[in-house]
C-alpha cells in the first residue's frame, strides 16, 4: 500500500481513543487487581509506576515512532530498519493472529454472561455452570464436540469486528472507539460507584491497598510489575506500530504515549478498586477473610463475580454493567489485534482493505470458530494464552529491542550504543512537546532488555519445575509450546519469501518534507 493512499486518523483524539481502547482490555479488569494483591498490595504500586516509566512508556514511544516514521505495518517498517528484522515483524503478526482467535472467544463469553445476568442463570453453583453447563468442558485434549452456546455469540462478535474493520481506520476503527470508550467509562464508573457502596467494601479496599513494604525486596514482585505493565499496554506484538502508521507527520508522539500510558494505568487502578470492593462484600457475606475469595483471570470474571452478583442487592444491574464492560473492553482490543494482521497483509500484497478484511479476517474468524467453541476450548485457550504471552510477546519485544539498539554491533565497533537510537529520537522530538533525552535511550538499551531477559529466565524456570496448570506434557507440547514456536517459525518463513516487485521504501519519511494533514494541524 503506497504512502499516498494510506489512511490516516481523523483527529488526535480519535487516535488516542483507539490506542487507549487497545490497551484497556480484559487483562486490566481481571489481571491487575490479583497481581497487585499477590505482590505487596499498595506497595506494588511503586514498582508498577517505576516499570511504567522505565519500560512501558519508553517502548510505547519507540513503537509510535517506528510506525509513524515508516508509515507501514511491523514487517515492512522493521524491514526498513534492517532487513533481518522483517522476520520479527511477521513473528508479531503471527502472535496477533493466535491471540485474536482465542481473545474473541472470551468476548463471546462476556456477551453471553451479560444476558445471563438478568436472571442469574448460573444458579447456586457458578463454577459448575461455567465449566459444565455453559462450556461443556472436557479433560484437556483434542476437541470432540461443538458447543452451540459459545459458537453463536462468537460468530456475532466476529461479524461486528469485521464490519468495523471493513469500514476502515477513520470510518470504522476511529468511530467505533469514539462510541465504545465513553460507553466503557460510563459502565465502569457506575460499576465502581456501586461497588464502593456495598457492605464490606472498606475491608476489600484495605486488603487491596494495605502495603507490604517487605515485598519490595522480593525480585519476583518487580518482575510481576514489569510483566503487568508490558502485557497491559499492547506493546510487543505490533499493535502500536500499526496504529501509529496512520498518524500524520506532525502528531505529538511523546505526549500521546504519556496520555495513553497513564490512562491505561488509571483504568487498572480503578478496576482494582471496583474488584476489591466487591470481593470485600463477598467476604463479609460469607463470614471469611478477603484473601479466601481473591481470584484472578477467567475464574474471577466468570465464577467469582457471578457468585457475588447472586448475593448482592441489585445484582442483575451490577452484572450487566460488569459483563457489558468486559464486552466493550474486549471488542476495542480485539479490533486492534486483528488490524495488525490485516494491515501487514495489505502492505505485503497491495490488497485493498475490503478484500483483505474478508480474506485475512475471515480466515482468523474461521480458525477461532473451529477450535474454541468446543469441549476442549477452555483448556486450549488457557495453554495457548500462557505460552504465546510468555514466549511470544515478551520474547519478540526483547529481540526487537536488541536489533534496534544493536548492542553487539556497538560493542564490536566500539561505538556508543545510543547512536543507533538517534534517528528515532530525532524523529519523535521533531514533533513532540516533551523531548526525549539520554534517559529514554538507557531505558530501551539497558533496563527494558535486562528486565525482559530476566522475565524469560524466571518463566522458563517455573515451566521446568512444574507443568503449567498441571496439564500433561503432551497436551502442553501441542497447545502451548508448538503455538509459541510456530509463531516464530511462521515469521521467519514469511520473511524469506521475496516481495512482489521488490520491497519499496516509503518516500517522504522526513518530517521537514511532509505536507501537514488535518491531524497535523490539530496537533499544533
From TrEMBL:
Region described as Disordered: 504-524
Pfam families in the cross-refs: SNF (PF00209)
PROSITE patterns: NA_NEUROTRAN_SYMP_3
Signal peptide start and end residues: none
Xref: InterPro entries: Na/ntran_symport (IPR000175), SNS_sf (IPR037272)
Bilayer topology annotation: Multi-pass membrane protein
Keywords: Membrane, Transmembrane, Transmembrane helix, Transport
Lineage: superkingdom: Bacteria
Primary location group: membrane
Protein localization: Membrane
Matches recorded under SUPFAM superfamilies: SNF-like
Record keyword Transferase present: no
GO cellular component: membrane
Transmembrane stretches, start-end: 12-32, 44-66, 87-111, 146-167, 179-201, 221-246, 258-283, 317-342, 354-372, 392-409, 439-457, 477-497
CDD domains listed in its UniProt record: SLC6sbd_u1
Matches recorded under PANTHER family: TRANSPORTER
Protein name, entry field: Sodium-dependent transporter
Lineage: Bacteria, Bacillati, Actinomycetota, Actinomycetes, Kitasatosporales
Amino acid at each position: 500500500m503506497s504512502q499516498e493512499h494510506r489512511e490516516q486518523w481523523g483527529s488526535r483524539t480519535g487516535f488516542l481513543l483507539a490506542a487507549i481502547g487497545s490497551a484497556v482490555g480484559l487483562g486490566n479488569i481481571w489481571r491487575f487487581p490479583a497481581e497487585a494483591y499477590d505482590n505487596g498490595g499498595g506497595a506494588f504500586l511503586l514498582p508498577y509506576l517505576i516499570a511504567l516509566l522505565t519500560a512501558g512508556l519508553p517502548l510505547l514511544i519507540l513503537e509510535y515512532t517506528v510506525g509513524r516514521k515508516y508509515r507501514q505495518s511491523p514487517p515492512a517498517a522493521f524491514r526498513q530498519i534492517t532487513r533481518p528484522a522483517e522476520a520479527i515483524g511477521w513473528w508479531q503478526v503471527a502472535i496477533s493472529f493466535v491471540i485474536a482467535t482465542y481473545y474473541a472467544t472470551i468476548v463471546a463469553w462476556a456477551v453471553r454472561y451479560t444476558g445471563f445476568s438478568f436472571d442469574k442463570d448460573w444458579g447456586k453453583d457458578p463454577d459448575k455452570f461455567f465449566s459444565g453447563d455453559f462450556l461443556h468442558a472436557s479433560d484437556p485434549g483434542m476437541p470432540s464436540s461443538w458447543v452451540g452456546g459459545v459458537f453463536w455469540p462468537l460468530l456475532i462478535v466476529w461479524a461486528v469486528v469485521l464490519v468495523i474493520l471493513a469500514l476502515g481506520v477513520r470510518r470504522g476503527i476511529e468511530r467505533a472507539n469514539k462510541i465504545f470508550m465513553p460507553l466503557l467509562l460510563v459502565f465502569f464508573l457506575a460499576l465502581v460507584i456501586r461497588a464502593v457502596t456495598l457492605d464490606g467494601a472498606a475491608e476489600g479496599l484495605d486488603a487491596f491497598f494495605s502495603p507490604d513494604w517487605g515485598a519490595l525486596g522480593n525480585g519476583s514482585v518487580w518482575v510481576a510489575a514489569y510483566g503487568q505493565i508490558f502485557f497491559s499496554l499492547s506493546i510487543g506484538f505490533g499493535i502500536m506500530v500499526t496504529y501509529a502508521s496512520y498518524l500524520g507527520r506532525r502528531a505529538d508522539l511523546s505526549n500521546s504515549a504519556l496520555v495513553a500510558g497513564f490512562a491505561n494505568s488509571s483504568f487498572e487502578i480503578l478496576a482494582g478498586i471496583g474488584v476489591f470492593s466487591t470481593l470485600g462484600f463477598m467476604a463479609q457475606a460469607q463470614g471469611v477473610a478477603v484473601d479466601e475469595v481473591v481470584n484472578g483471570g477467567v475464574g474471577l470474571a466468570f465464577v467469582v463475580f457471578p457468585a457475588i452478583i447472586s448475593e448482592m442487592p441489585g445484582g442483575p444491574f451490577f452484572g450487566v454493567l460488569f459483563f457489558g464492560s468486559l464486552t466493550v473492553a474486549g471488542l476495542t482490543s480485539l479490533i486492534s489485534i486483528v488490524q495488525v494482521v490485516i494491515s501487514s497483509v495489505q502492505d505485503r500484497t497491495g490488497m485493498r482493505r475490503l478484500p483483505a478484511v474478508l480474506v485475512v479476517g475471515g480466515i482468523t474468524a474461521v480458525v477461532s470458530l473451529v477450535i474454541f467453541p468446543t469441549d476442549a476450548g477452555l483448556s486450549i485457550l488457557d495453554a495457548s494464552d500462557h505460552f504465546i504471552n510468555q514466549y511470544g510477546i515478551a520474547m519478540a519485544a526483547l529481540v526487537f529491542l536488541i536489533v534496534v539498539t544493536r548492542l553487539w554491533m556497538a560493542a564490536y565497533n566500539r561505538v556508543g550504543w545510543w547512536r543507533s537510537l538517534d534517528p528515532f529520537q530525532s524523529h519523535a522530538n521533531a514533533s513532540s512537546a516533551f523531548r526525549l533525552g539520554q534517559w529514554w535511550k538507557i531505558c530501551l538499551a539497558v533496563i527494558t532488555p535486562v528486565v525482559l531477559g530476566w522475565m524469560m529466565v524466571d518463566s522458563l524456570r517455573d515451566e521446568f519445575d512444574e507443568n503449567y496448570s498441571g496439564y500433561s506434557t503432551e497436551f502442553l507440547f501441542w497447545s502451548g509450546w508448538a503455538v509459541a514456536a510456530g509463531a516464530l517459525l511462521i515469521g521467519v518463513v514469511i520473511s524469506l519469501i521475496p516481495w512482489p516487485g521488490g520491497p519499496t521504501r516509503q518516500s517522504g519519511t522526513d518530517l521537514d518534507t511532509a505536507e501537514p494533514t488535518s491531524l497535523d494541524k490539530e496537533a499544533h
